[in-house]
Amino acid sequence: MYLPRKNLDNSARFERALAEQLRQEIPTFAPNAVDLSGFRPLRAKIDCITIARPPRLSVAAFAELKAALKGKVARRNDDPKAATIHDPTLDDLRWLSTNRGGDRVEYIEIAVDARLPAGTNDIYLLRKLKEEMRHCVAPQRHRLFDDKAVREYWDLGTRKHVHDAVAKAAPLTTVWYCSPRRLVRLKLYIKTMDQGVPMIGQPFLRIELSMDIPSWAGIDRIGDMKSFGKRLRTFCSPAFFMGSDFKGSLDDGAMWKTRGAAWDLRKQKHLVITPNAVVNRAFGDALNELGQQMQRI
Fold first, then answer.
1. Backbone angles phi, psi at 272, to 5 degrees
2. DSSP string spanning 95-149?
3. Mean pLDDT of the chain
4. Which of 135, 165, 239, 265 could form a disulfide with 142 if both were Cys (CB 3.0 to 4.6 A apart)?
5. What is the reported pTM?
């Protein structure tokens, strides 16, 4: 299923219509483990990067970026020295490394996409995968999350982030996992919009790691992107870690079935999560492929 073109006239209306249709029609399922069998191999990408040239990014420098890059280049209204590049290609990153290697990196998003086979628009299968990942992902394992995370979702009624309770039914909108200081986030959603515009074509599921301080990953300057490719998989994989159960006899597995990895999100209970080896390998392969591409820029 995919909503027809006539429903794509307004992003907020489209989002509400999609959520309401899913709420009414989605079948019941148990999200105890992530299943990627109905999807193409996962693919990772640099989804967004913000660069800065103090004290100010000149009009000429901004125009040069727009002319040279294939990704969408936009100014930061809150920061006159910065520009954000959405969907940068590897050629874009190569050009930036060669011509703007000393520019500071102020923000970065690393995304992993799960796509259906070509010609398929089964958004219910995407919805199922989203709920499985919400149940099983444990970003608190990444050191930048400091062993804990706050899980929230985007409430369409209030247009605000709302706390996503562990035992609550999965929300139909975007789910966020935020570090205690909110400087690192993991975002899980079905991609039906692109930069505020409803997509035409096949929707897909995206899980995305964002960092407000990329230097924590060793990315201070654009010129560091190539060397970061060597350790991208090692650095990013813990944020995308997927579990399948708690190790040991913990209430006969009932707590995993009802609450999943999020039971250990905010207050550590010294639980050990059994990894989903197949799914974690798929994430690792996607990140490794991206890392190898970045080493060639």
1. -110, 125
2. HHHHHSTTSEEEEEEEEEEE-PPTT---HHHHHHHHHHHHHHB-GGGSGGGTT--
3. 85
4. 239
5. 0.87
Residue 232, pLDDT above cutoff 60:
yes
User: Which among 48, 107, 108, 99 has a CA at the least distance from the CA of 81?
Assistant: 107
10 Å CB burial of residue 4 (0-12, 13-18, 19+) is exposed
Query: Cβ-count burial of 259 within 10 angstroms (0-12 exposed, 13-18 middle, 19+ buried)?
Result: middle
CA atoms of 105 and 122, how far apart (whole Å) = 37
Q: How many domains does the chain have?
A: 1
Quote the Cα angle for 284-238-154, to 5°. 105
Phi and psi for 75 in degrees, rounded to 5?
Answer: -75, 155
CA–CA gap between residue 58 and residue 80 (Å, rounded):
9
What's the N-to-C CA distance of the chain in angstroms?
Answer: 39
The count of other CB atoms within 10 Å of the CB of residue 27 is 7
As a whole number of angstroms, the longest Cα–Cα distance in the chain is 64
- Structure token digits, residue 152: 């929230």
Query: Could you tell me the two tokens for 278?
Result: 């197949």
Query: Which structural domain, as residue segments, surrounds residue 15?
Result: 5-295
Mean pLDDT confidence for 43-48: 97
**pLDDT at residue 1 in the model:** 35
Q: Of the candidates 95, 93, 182, 145, which has an alpha carbon nearest to the alpha carbon of residue 264?
A: 145
CA of 205: how far to CAs of 44, 210, 253, in Å? 12, 16, 28
Of residues 239, 232, 238, the one with CA closest to residue 292: 232
Can you give the pLDDT at residue 8?
Answer: 36
The long-range contacts involving 267-270, CB below 8 angstroms and separated by at least 24 positions, are 267/148, 268/147, 268/148
